[in-house]
Amino acid sequence: MFVHWGLYAIPAGEWNGRTDYGEWIRNNARIPIDVYDQFQARFNPAKFDPDAWVRMAKAAGMQYIVITTKHHDGFALFDSKGTTWDVMATPYGRDIIAQLADACRRGGIRLGLYYSIMDWHHPDYLPRREWEAASRPESGADFDRYVAFMKGQLKELLTGYGPVGVLWFDGQWEPTWTAARGRDLYGYVRRLQPSIIVNNRVGEGVGDFGTPEQEIPATGLAGAAWETCMTMNRNWGFNRADKDFKSAETLRRNLVDIASKGGNFLLNVGPTADGEFPAESVERLRQIGDFMRAAGESIHGTQASPFPFLPWGRCTQRRLDANTTRLYLHVWDRPADGVLVVPGLLNHVRRARPMTTVDTPFGLPVERKGEDLHISLGLITGPGPALDDVIVVDIAGAPRVKTQK
Question: Is it true that domain 2-298 has CATH number 3.20.20.80?
Answer without folding.
Answer: yes
